Amino acid sequence: MKNKIDVCRKAIMSAVDTRHLHEIFGRFSKELCEGAVRGGDFETFRSASEWVSWLSWSSVVLDEQDYLTTAVYALRLAPRLAPTDYGRSRQRDLGQLWTDAIRGHLGEAAFVKWLSQRFQKAVKTGIEAVGPLDEFLPTDIVEVDGRRPEVKVSIKTTKLNGIWLDIPYKQIKHSDVFVLVRVGATREHFVAFLKAISVIRDKLLEPALRSGIISQDVYRELWESLPNFTPVPAYVAGYFDRREHSSRIDAEKILEADGVAKAKRIVINRYMGYWNPKNEELRRLLSEKLSQKIGRDVAGLKIAFEGIGEFSEADHFIVSSGLLKRTENEWARLVAQL
Prior knowledge:
Elements: H1 2-13, H2 21-25, H3 29-38, H4 48-58, E1 59-62, H5 64-77, H6 94-119, E2 123-125, E3 141-144, E4 153-159, E5 164-168, E6 177-183, H7 189-196, H8 199-210, H9 216-225, E7 232-241, H10 246-252, E8 254-261, E9 265-275, H11 280-294, E10 302-305, E11 316-320, H12 328-337
Parallel strand pairs: 4-6, 9-10
Antiparallel strand pairs: 1-7, 2-3, 5-11, 6-7, 8-9, 9-11
């Protein structure tokens, strides 16, 4: 796997005629290639150069204005979000809800911008609308070229090295299509954004300096220690069309699964179907499917998913990124349906 990641990174860094991908993704090349290789995306292309060409077509860059728009709408949304994570008891304060909402909705912003650039589609998402959250559960896209969309589309955001399209609870039955967008938003981006729009300097450091709380040297030290805002790279990894599998989803529960057997566990790296770590039926079905695939009994092995420490104790429908549709022709057909 390391060799494939190295080939992937080299392809990005040597890209010349593909929208200067080394400038867009250069400092994120390790994370980006880990996601593409571990998720199985990279293997769906005949060569590294073909993948690079597709990545150039699939990528988009979010600037400071895009981030500002997302931050404002996310602030409007944050007070209406549940303070607990699905299936967990951890409480999040309003500030964390806000930053979490920003990161999640950067994927929506990237998808909207990408549709505009690649297909000349004017799209609005639910984050811009006002109303009960359950009204927008079936679709994140609420308007296409000034009309209601014909297809219910849900947009999911993950990090550049994320490999799973994770659909919580019963949403698999509410939406038609699920889009996965990988976004290179670091932990420093929100603070860097606040620095860029002068909130930290004008509303925090300057008053502290005038009040004698800090000296000029501390002011300078603090200001220079903060990261500067940089554009956020993103790319549309692909989509899962539930309509193509509707007759199998509930009947089979697990449509596809594969993994690597190790000493005491099996690591799942290819998957399409329901999953809940506490559901014994799903564990049995997965063990049976993997035993057939690998050719040995894996019932006694611990089940782990590539890149995920543990799932929340809730129902999920998950799809590994390598199983998503992603070609230009596939996207053209879907966009024509919107």
